[in-house]
TrEMBL record:
Xref: InterPro entries: F-box-assoc_dom_typ1, F-box-assoc_interact_dom, F-box-like_dom_sf, F-box_dom, SCF_F-box_component
UniProt protein name: F-box domain-containing protein
UniProt domain F-box: residue ranges: 12-58
Domain of life of the native organism: Eukaryota
Listed SMART domains: FBOX
Length: 364
């Protein structure tokens, strides 16, 4: 099969034919934009580029990270991270988001963005790189007045499927909230929501509704009264086993709701991270409290604390430049140099999410 495809890949009989394995190695390092164009070269190239094996290989080698933003008009802007640092006015793409409702980013995984229409209780999966989109079945609640507390999106690498998780706070027949929650999970390929084990942490206050996906788990920053004082922790959901655990915060002094609002959970280089006061912490070994390590302090936090409600770390680079998201009425992206403490602001719509470029379809 390999020799047959390699033979057809030659642009001319008079030109030498590259070995098939070498052709694959070249193509899988190209951007999605070029690969979509190259599908039209011939049937063999199309067959190769859409094959699951090639798509996974391309994802493994993908180094192009994109910043996606949504505006209130539901137009999506796409920026290449490197272009943001070199030229803050560089706009790579202006995409029509396929929805008439204002959605919120739930998260991203392997190039797929998950967005939630909170008002209509709809979730959508979208890969802007290949412009493919899937609307999930409507979330069915136990009571009409039940409230959606938290949500998350991630990938189970063992089974190789994607899951959307929704945690809902139950109410009685009169719409009064009660100290009980239930959890629904959507698994790709099933096209249905399933009920799973009840959320075991009781009635919690949610500091950020969108969970962070890391190490096969979705994580939310929450707090609760236990028994007479407020306890802050990370509620973790394992996508593979569909089980829960508490993950402890770093030992970084007294924790209160105000401090948590100034910071947020994030993911840096595959590790769970947290902004607390002015400091950025990472959990180098997932689930181990002892592995929390302070990376650096964000001096700009002192200037932001009076006018912004939260700071989220979006990405960190080898040269110690950090991409931050500051949220109040509108979002601002901040480029922060952790070495010299300098920063600059950029206005990019009302929300931002970083994802890798991929060929993975949300419709599978």
């Amino acid at each position: 099969m390999g020799e047959t495809i390699a033979g057809t890949l030659a642009l001319s009989r008079s030109l030498p034919t590259l070995p098939f394995d070498l052709i694959v190695e070249i193509l899988c390092r190209l951007s999605v934009k070029f690969l979509l164009q190259f599908r039209c070269v011939c049937k063999s190239w199309n067959y190769l580029i859409v094959s699951p094996k090639f798509i996974k290989k391309h994802l493994h080698l993908s180094t192009k990270h994109l910043v996606h933003t949504l505006t209130y008009s539901n137009l999506s802007h796409k920026y290449v991270l490197n272009s943001i640092f070199n030229d803050v006015t560089t706009e790579v793409a202006h995409l029509e988001y396929p929805s008439n409702h204002l959605d919120h980013f739930v998260g991203s995984c392997n190039g797929i963005l998950c967005l939630a229409d909170i008002y209509n209780e709809l979730f959508r999966l979208w890969n802007p790189s290949i412009r493919k989109f899937k609307e999930l079945p409507r979330l069915k609640k136990q009571q009409y007045s039940d409230k959606m507390m938290m949500y998350g999106f991630g990938h189970d690498p063992i089974i190789d499927n994607y899951k959307v998780v929704a945690v809902l706070h139950a109410s009685d027949g009169r719409g009064n909230l009660i100290a009980k929650t239930y959890v629904k999970v959507y698994t790709s390929g099933t096209n249905i929501w399933t009920n799973i084990e009840e959320f075991p942490f009781g009635c919690v206050s949610v500091q950020q509704r969108s969970g962070k996906f890391v190490s096969g788990t979705i994580n939310w920053l929450v707090s609760r009264m236990y028994p007479t004082k407020r306890q802050h922790f990370i509620a973790s959901f394992d996508l593979r086993s569909e089980s829960y655990q508490e993950v402890l915060l770093p030992d970084c002094g007294a924790v209160d709701v105000y401090n948590l609002r100034l910071g947020a959970l994030g993911v840096l280089r595959g590790c769970l991270c947290m902004v607390f006061r002015h400091d950025v912490w990472v959990m180098k070994e997932y689930g181990s409290k002892e592995s929390w390590t302070k990376l650096f302090a964000i001096n700009v936090m002192q200037d932001l604390s009076t006018s912004y409600t939260s700071i989220k770390v979006l990405n960190i680079f080898e040269d110690n430049q950090v991409l931050l998201n500051s949220t109040r009425m509108t979002d601002k992206l901040i480029i922060y140099n952790s070495k010299n403490g300098t920063f600059k602001f950029m206005d990019f719509g009302n929300s931002a999410e970083v994802c890798v470029e991929s060929l993975i379809s949300p419709c599978s």
